[in-house]
Amino acid sequence: MDRSGPAKPQTTIFTVMSALAQRHGAVNLGQGFPDESGPEHVIEAAVAAMREGRNQYPPMPGVLELRQAIAAHQRDWYGLDPSVEEGVVVTAGATEAIAASMLAFVRPGDEVIAMEPFYDSYKAAVELAGGTIVPWRLEAPAFRPDLDRLASLVTGRTRMLLLNTPHNPTGTVLDRAELEAVARVAIERDLLVVTDEVYEHLVFEGRHEPIAGLPGMWDRTVSIGSAGKTFSVTGWKIGWATGPAALVDRVKGVKQYLTFASGTPFQYGIAAALASGREYFESYLAGYAERRELLAAGLAGLGFTVYEPQGTYFITTSAAPLGYEDGMAFCLELPERCGVVAVPTQVFYADPEPRPEVRFTFCKPLAVLEEGLERLRKGL
Strand (E) positions, the chain? Predict the structure, then answer.
């Protein structure tokens, strides 16, 4: 019998970099959470729910008002029509939706193809389900998917394609032709698709298009969304999964044994958030476009190779022109040397070999970005 006790949580690069930021009083341009709070009407809707006594367990799939708002969002933005009763489940952030989807559909020995570099929870969730993650790498400098490579990665053990568009950390947004090519592979090889779309409203070039809306894809796709990025309330941890009833029911079956339900008053707040008019989303995007332009130009002026993102609020750069081939070494040195935190993108790979790429975030006020750039100028 294994008497070593429960597994210990790993110390992630984000924990390390946050500690370094505190130690050196650094500007944190690494972790992807905004410094600003969410819109006032969203905060007030959650406060009102608390004061009205809505502080107990919500229904396991989520409060009705939020499920209705999510279904309406999918319909109004993308023409999708998930059932409010059977095709929507509210989760503790997108991370729970991802984990529940992996546990619902991945069996021991299954393979899951995922776009690499990838959010670190993907590999953990797949392995927790007993599966193996198979990287589908996006290569610098374009970070576009190699569609021929995708077809060659599919084996008899492949169970699922795990997509992320807009893509963290590269900012790539899959276009219609690329999505159609992915859909052909999924249909021909009878694969499930789970798609992480948490940055759906942060697309600066092109447009976000859910793969679930392509012919033949609705019945095999689970779409995952989140309120944290769009409404600057990452601490509320309100996400969701939508799709055909048969698939969402499987996700619910796992979710009930993970968190069961959470964040009752926050769910009412996000129901109000999703009902925001188009002008909110347009203003939100315009504000981040200005920040993207500022940070991209500033980093390029400092000598970084900048891969300007189509979407998300991250910028991938290369520190090689500054003499660093190891982004990890560069990022560990940066807080003390410059008073700035960034994240090495090698931590988003299955085999984190040294790479010169470094990720910065622009989900900070303009003044904070300017301060970070000034510190980099002085330190570098």
Answer: 27-28, 88-92, 111-116, 132-137, 158-164, 192-196, 221-226, 238-242, 305-307, 314-318, 340-341, 343-344, 357-361
